[in-house]
Amino acid sequence: MKAEPIFVAPAAAQRRATGSWPALLFTVIVAAAAAWAFSPRPMPPFAPTFVHPDGFLANGLAQQGKRVIAVGEQGEILLADDLQGPWRQASVEPQRGSTLTQVRFVGPGVAIAVGHDGWVLRSTDGGETWKEAFFIKTKPQADDAPAGPGGLIAPPPGASTSAEPPDSTAAEPPPDASTSAEPPDSSSASAWNPEPPSTDDSGTADDAAQPLLPDPLLGIAGPFDGHLFAIGGFGLMLRSDDDGKTWHHVVSDTIGDHHLNAMLRAADGSLLIAGERGLLARSTDSGQSWTVLPQVYDGSFFGALALPSKTLLVFGMRGHVFRSTDKGQTWQASTVPGNASLFGGTVTRKGQVVLVGAGSTVMVSDDDGQTFRAEHSGAAHDYAAVLPVTTDRWLVAGDAGLQLVSAGETDGDAP
Amino acid sequence: MKTTLRACVDGISDFLIGWRHALAVLFLAMTVVFGWSATRVQLDPGFMKQIPIHHPYMQTMMDHIKHFSGANSLLVNLRWKGKGDIYNKPFFEAMRKATDDVFLIPGVDRTRVSSIFTPNTYYIEITEDGFKGEPVVPARFSATPEQLARVRHNVSLSGQVGLLVSNDYKSALIRADLQEVDTGNPAEAEIFYRRVIRNLADIRGQFESPHEYVYTLKQDHPPFKAGQEIDHGYVDYGWSLGMQAFYERPPGGGEPIKIKGSELDVKAVANPDYNPDVEVNIIGFAQLLGDVINGLVGVFAFFAVAFVITMVLLFLYSRSLRLTLVALIVALLPVLWLLGILPMIGFGIDPMSILVPFLIFSIGVSHAVQMTNAWRHEVVRGATAVDASRAAFRKLFIPGAVALLTNALGFAVIMFIDIPIVHELGITACLGVLLMIVTNKMILPIILTHIRLEQRSRENSLKPPSTRQMAIWKQMARCAQPRFALGVFAVCLVLLFVTTHASRGLVIGDTGTGAPELRPTSRYNHDNGEIANHYNIGTDVLSVIVEAPDFAGDSCLHYPVMNLIDQFELYMRGVQGVRSVTSVAGIGKLVIGAFNEGNPRWRALPRSEVGLSTGSKAFDPALGLNTESCRAIQVLVFMKNHEGATIAHAVDQVKDFIKAHPVDGVRMRLASGNVGVMAATNEAVESAEAKMLLAIFGALALLCLLTFRSWRATLCVLVPLTMVSIFCNALMATMDIGLKVATLPVVALGVGVGVDYGIYLFERIQHYLRDGQPFGEAFREAMLERGTAAVFTAITMAIGVGTWTFSALKFQADMGLLLSFMFLVNMLGAICLLPALGAWLFRERAAPQPKPAPHRVAEA
Q1: Which residues make Cβ contacts (< 8 Å) with residue B622, sequence separation at least 6?
Q2: B551 in contact with A at a CB cutoff of 8 Å?
Q3: How crowded is residue B134: how many other Cβ atoms within 10 Å of its Cβ?
Q4: Contacts of A162 in chain B (CB under 8 A)
Q5: Cβ within 8 Å, pair A74-B508
Q6: CB contact under 8 A, A147 and B552
Q7: What distances in angstroms separate CA B45 from CA B176, B177, B217, B303, B633, one per listed residue?
Q8: Contacting residues of B for A379, CB less than 8 Å apart
Q9: How many CB atoms within 10 Å of residue A49?
Q10: Are A30 and B840 in contact (CB < 8 Å)?
C-alpha cells in the first residue's frame, strides 16, 4: 500500500499547484471569510452616556424667552430651547459636584444658580457655560482617607485630591469637616477654618472676619434695586451688588440660624423672607435689618410668590398656604386640597397660581390664591419646581427629574 | 507504518472474532452492571454550576456572596385581577399567607424575606414635629376598612411603590433569597431543589387551584402506615404522579424518607383558599429550574418520536428487521453504559445537559448504519456472517474510530468554556462517544456474527441500483468534473459572501426578554413580564460592588466614598439600557432629605462625617445594600433587558467610569446579580469561541493529515466544514439566536460530527485513487459504496435532533434546529463541495492512464 507522498519534487509541486489554482484560491477565500466571520463582532450603536432629564434630581427651573434651565444633583445643569426639550448638559467650571437647588434669570442672558456648600454659579450666555462666583470650601480632615495596611490614618499628601471630581481643574484640598446639617458639636466646630479669599478669577470670596460653614443655599432673589440675594440653611444670606459677580455674607441676628427658603419684594419695596418653622421676616432697608413677623403657622415655609395683584403668597409643609393682601402685615390661610408639602410654585402670565410638592402634587388657583384645586397627584414623587406649558400641562422638576405632567394624569412623561 | 496499522487492525479483528463468545459474556456482564447502576442516576441541578466560576466578575460575586444575595433570588408576586386595587381583605389575607409560606421554603434566608407584611418594610411620615417610622402593616392587622385605609396611606409614604407594591397598585411582591448548600452530592441537590420547587408550586396552587390534593399511602412504608397522609398540596400531577418523589420526615424527626408517587393515593378536596381574582407570578432560578424539568418530560416524548422515525427509516434502508433492531440496540448501549457510569464517578445529569444521551444515540445510529451496511454487503456477496463481520470491522475500524475521535474532540473543545456545567457536559459527552468505540466497533461485529440476514433484504441488496438512483449519483458525480466544479465554486462564493456578511450580525448573549431557556409564551416568561412591567425594578440586576475596607469608622460616613457612589448612580442612570439604580448614596440622600422636613432641596450629601451620619438609617446592613460599617457596598443597576449587547454596553460604561474616577482606598468591582452572571458568561463564551474553533479545526487538520497523509485531502475535508460553520453563524444571526452556552457548542459539535461524512467518503476515494483511477471515477465509486449510507445517516440524525425543535425549552429547540442544520449541510458539503475541490486539487490524476479493470462492487 503506498501512501501519497506529502513532499513532492519542487517542479512537480509547482506544476500541480498551478494546475489546481481555482481550488486553492477558493480555499484562501473561505479561510479569509472565516477569519472575518469569527473575528470580534462590532457592537450595535448605543447612545452616548449623558445625564438624562428624567434621571436626575432636579430642584430648580428658570425660563427666559425660549431658553429653559434646570439645575440639580451633582452640580448638573441641563438646558433646552423649548419646555418640551430636548435637553443638553451645560458646562460648569469648576464642577464641584455639590447639589444645586435653585436657578434664576437676573438679567438678559444672565443667570444665577445656587446650591449646597454655598455654591453660586453665574452664566452670562443664557446658561450655556457657568463660572463659579462663590463657594465655601471645607477644610480637609485627616481621617478622610483610608488607613494604610498598618492602620495608620495619615494619608500621603496628594492622596485625598481624589475626592474631587476628576474634571475639576481647581487644585484644592478635598473638602471635609463638618457642615451644619446637624448643629456641630464643640469638637467639630473647632475643626472648621475659613479659606483665605481666593485670588483666582472664579471670584470666590468671603468675609474673612466671619468664617463660613459650607451650608446650602436654597433660594435666589432679585435684582432689587441692583442687589441680588442668595439665602439658605442656618440663616446663610449672601448679597451681590455687582450683578452676581461677587457675593458678600450678610449677618442678621434677628433671623439667627433658621433655614431661609424664599425671599420676595412686596409692592412697597419691602423684602420678605419665608423659612423654617413658620419664619416670616420683613426688611424695609434692602435687607440690612429684619423684623420677624408674628407666627401664623409653626411648620416650615418652603416658598413664596408675589402675585401680579400684589398679593403675597407663602406655602410650605403639609399643604399650608397663606396669603397676604397688605404687604405681609396679616395672613389668611388658603383653601388647599390634601396635605402634601409644597416645595415650588409659579404664576402664569394670566395670573393663575401653580404650586407643586410631595406626592406628585400639582395644584392650581384661579382666584388669586384663595382656593386651590388638585390637578395632579397620586404618584410618589416630590416636585420642587414648575413652569407652565399650557393651562393644563406643566414642566415639573423633582426627584424623578424633569417631567411633563398634564391635569388628571397620575404620572408624568419624560420630556 | 500504514501497514503496521493495518496489521494491527487485522490482529484486533481476529482476536475479536476468535474470542467473541468470551467477550460477549464480558460485555453482557458489563451491560448488566451499568444497567443496574443506571437506575441510580440522579438529576443534579445547581445554580453555582452554571456560572463561569473563574471569571473575575464571579470572583467578586463569590467574595461577597455571604453579604449580598448574588443572583439566586425568588420573587413571588400576587396580582389582584378583581375590581379595584389591592386594598381589600381577600388580597391581604392571601398576601399574608403567601409571605408566611415563603418563610417556610427550605433554604430561604429568613432575614432577607421582604414584603409589605415583613417588619423590615416601614414608612416614614414627616410632620411639623419631626418624623415617625413604623412598619407598613401595623401589628394586629385584621384588614378592617380603617386598617386598609391606614395601610394604603403607609404604603404611599414607604417609598415601596414600584418595589414591593406595583405602580398600578394591582399587585404586591414578596422577595426572598435562596441559599444553596453545595454538598457535592447530586442526590441532595435534587432533593433540595425538588422541595423548593414543590413549595413554590404549592404557593401558586393555594390561590390558583380550585382543588387541594391529599396524598395517602396505599401500603405500609415503614415507619409510615397504609392510609397515613404523607403530604397535601395544590399541584395536580395527573398521570405523572408516579414519576414524582415525596420526602417526608418520619415521626420523631430524622432525615426525610423518599416515597415514590406510585405508592400514594390521591384525593382531591375543595381548596378553601382558592380565589379566581388572585394570580400568582413566581420567578427565580428555582422556579425556572422547575419549569425546565417539566419541559424535559417533553424531551422524552420527542425522543420516542425520533426513535420510531429512525426505526422506520432504518428498516426501509436495510429491509431487514433484524439489522434494524440490532442497530437500534447497539446505538442505545452507549447511552445505557454512560448513564451507568455517571453515578459511579459521582456525576448526575443536569437538566441543562440532558440532551447528551440523545445526541449519543443519534451518533450511535449513524455509526451502526455504516457497520451493518458494510456487513450486509459482505453477506450479500456470499461471505458467512462471521467472515462478513471480520471484513466489516477491518474496513471500518480506522475511519470509524477516527470519526468517533473527532466527535469526542468536538465535545472536548467545548470545555474551553470555563463553566462547570459545560465541563460536565463535555466530559459526559466525550465519555459517551468513547464508549461507542467499544459498543459500535466491537460489540456490533460480535452480535452480527450471530445474525442471519433475511432473504428479502438479501434480494433487495442484490437488485442493481434503480435508474433514478443512478441518475442522481451521476448528477452528483459531475461535481467532480473540473468545469462543473467551477460552477460549484461560484455558487459557494455567492453563498459565502451573503452568509459571511449576515454572520457579522451574530450577538453574544441573549436576544429576547425573559428567561432565555424557555419560550416567550411560557408561564415563566408571562410571570416575568408581569413583574417587569408593573414594578420599577425589573428582574435584570447588575450589581457593582464598592469595597472601602480601610476607612476609619464607617466608610459610608466618608464623603469621598459616598460621593463616588452618588456620581456613579447618576452616571449609570444616563446609560442606555438602564432602568433605574439603587444604592446607599441615593437612599442616604432620601433619608437626609426626610430629616430636613422632606424638602428635596436638602437631598444632597454633606461633606462631613457628622452631616453624613444624618443619613445613617440608609446604611443599615439589613437593607442589603452594604455590609457592617460599609466595608463593602453594592450598587444595584436595574436593566431594561438582558440582551447581550445591552449588557456588554452597560459593563463597558461601568469600566469607563471606574477608570475615570479613581478614589484612594476605594475599589469598584464588577459584578454580581443575574446580569453580572450573564455578563461573565457572555464574556466567557466570547473568549472561548475563537479558541474553541481553532482547537477543533487544528485537531481535525492534524487527524486528517495523519489519516490521509495528504494536505490536499485535508483541504477537501476541512474547507466545506469551515464554510458550513460560517453558514451556521449566519443562520443564528438571522434567526435571532444568540451565541451562548447552549448554542456555542453547536458549531464544535456540528463540525466534529459533520467531519464523519468527509472522512468516510475520502477514505474510499483515496482507496480508488491509489488504484490509479482519476478523481471523478474514484468519487463515483466512493459515492456508490458509502454515499447512500452518508446521506441516510445525515437525514436520520437531523431528524433525531430536529424533533427537539418542538421542545418547550427554548435552548433545546435552538440547539436542535442548529444541529440538524449542521448535520444536513455538512453532508451536502461532503458530497458537493468536497468533490469539486478534489477535482481541481487532484486534477493531474485525470490525465488518461491505462485504466486497470476496476473491481466493480454491487451496491445498494
Answers
A1: B111, B120
A2: yes
A3: 15
A4: 560, 662-664
A5: no
A6: yes
A7: 20, 17, 28, 21, 31
A8: 161
A9: 19
A10: no
Cell triple for residue B173?
411582591
Q: Give me the residues of B, 155-194, that contact A with CB < 8 A.
A: 156, 159, 161-162, 167
Sketch the domain layout of chain B as residue ranges.
1-39+319-463, 465-504+710-860, 523-679
Using DSSP's 3-state secondary structure scheme, residue B739 falls into strand
Q: SS3 of B283, please?
A: strand
- With helix as H, strand as E and coil as C, how does B219-248 read? CCECCECCCCEEEEECCCCHHHHHHCEEEE
Is the CB of residue B755 less than 8 Å from the CB of residue B829? no
Nearest chain B CA: its distance from A324 CA (Å): 22
Where do we find the cell 446607599? Answer: B584
E strands, B514-594, in order: 540-547, 578-582
A vs B: CB pairs below 8 A? 265
Report which of A111, A117, A342, A135 is spatially closest to residue A232, judged by C-alpha positions.
Answer: A117
Q: How many residues does chain B have?
A: 860
Three-state DSSP state, B772: coil
Rounded average pLDDT over A352-374: 89
B825: distance to nearest CA of chain A, Å?
A: 16
Q: Which three cell numbers stand for residue A373?
A: 384645586
Which residue reads 449566519 in cell numbers? B730
Of B723, B837, B844, the CB nearest to A19: B844
Are the folds of B1-39+319-463 and B465-504+710-860 the same? yes
Phi, psi of A37 (to 5 degrees): -60, -35
CB B560 to CB A162 under 8 A? Answer: yes
Question: Would you state the cell numbers that stand for residue B563, as one nine-digit string?
Answer: 460621593
Which set of grid coordinates corresponds to residue A263? 425671599
Mean pLDDT, rounded, for B265-283: 86
Considering the domain B465-504+710-860 in this protein, what is its CATH number? 1.20.1640.10
Residue A413 confidence (pLDDT) above 50: no
Question: Which of B558, B577, B843 is closest, CB to CB, to A19?
Answer: B843
**Cβ neighbours for A295, distance < 8 A, ≥ 6 positions apart:** A278, A280
Taking a C-beta distance cutoff of 8 angstroms, is the pair B826, B750 a contact? yes
User: Which of B585, B592, B556, B607 lies closest to A98, judged by CA?
Assistant: B607
Q: For residue B444, give the H/E element and its range.
A: helix B444-448
B147-185 pLDDT per residue, tens: 888 888 788 777 777 788 888 888 999 988 887 666 666
A361 contact B CB<8A: no
A-proximal residues of B, 631-660, CB under 8 Å: 645, 648-649, 652-653, 656, 660
Q: Is the Cα dihedral B510, B513, B514, B520 positive or negative?
A: negative
CB-based contact B607 A117, cutoff 8 Å = yes
Pick from A272, A261, A260: nearest CA to A310: A272
Instruction: Considering only residues A222 and B129, tell me which one the structure prediction assigns the higher pLDDT.
Output: A222
B844 neighbourhood in chain A, CB within 8 Å: 15-16, 19
Quick check: A33 and B500 CB within 8 A?
A: yes
Query: Which residues does B213 contact at the CB level (< 8 Å), separation at least 6?
Result: B232, B233, B234, B235, B236, B237, B266, B267, B268, B269
Does domain B1-39+319-463 match CATH 2.40.50.630? no
User: What cell does A200 get?
Assistant: 483666582
Which chain B residues touch A57 with a CB distance below 8 Å?
589, 600, 603
pLDDT band for position A144 (50/70/90)?
A: low
Q: Work out the minimum CA distance from A44 to partner chain B, whole angstroms.
A: 7
Q: What are the Cα distances from residue B329, in Å, to A226, A339, B322?
A: 100, 80, 11
A344 strand-pairing partners: A356
Whether chain A has a CB inside 8 Å of the CB on B504: the answer is yes
| pLDDT tens profile B477-532 | 888 888 888 889 999 999 999 999 999 988 888 877 778 778 888 888 899 888 88
